[in-house]
Amino acid sequence: MEHITLSFPASRTLQGKALAGVVGSGDMEVLFTAAAGDALSIDITTSVDNSTRRWNALFERLNLTNGLPAGKLVIHDFGATPGVARIRIEQVFEEVSHA
């Protein structure tokens, strides 16, 4: 297991909390809590060692396409593909934006 902590500048503000995925599902769980501020802090626990570059690249792409909201993102990854990771992350951002 590897623990990764990242931080990215936030370009938008949301309100609320959201959960996507389930830890026991075999891929991943993402929890987002919106907060005031100018950064998105990301806490990742993953079963895939040496994956910091992959996570950085994913968040850089998300930042370019939609911008990132301010708050705290907690990810429990158990070997999900990058596509599944992106879907789960976008799900929590979308759920909170429509709350």
UniProtKB/TrEMBL annotation:
Covalently binds the prosthetic group of malonate decarboxylase. It comes from the Bacteria. The keyword Iron does not apply. It is found in: Cytoplasm. InterPro entries: Mal_deCO2ase/Cit_lyase_ACP, Malonate_deCO2ase_dsu. Keywords: Cytoplasm, Phosphoprotein. Subunit of malonate decarboxylase, it is an acyl carrier protein to which acetyl and malonyl thioester residues are bound via a 2'-(5''-phosphoribosyl)-3'-dephospho-CoA prosthetic group and turn over during the catalytic mechanism. NCBIfam families: malonate_delta (TIGR03130). This is Malonate decarboxylase acyl carrier protein. The gene is mdcC.
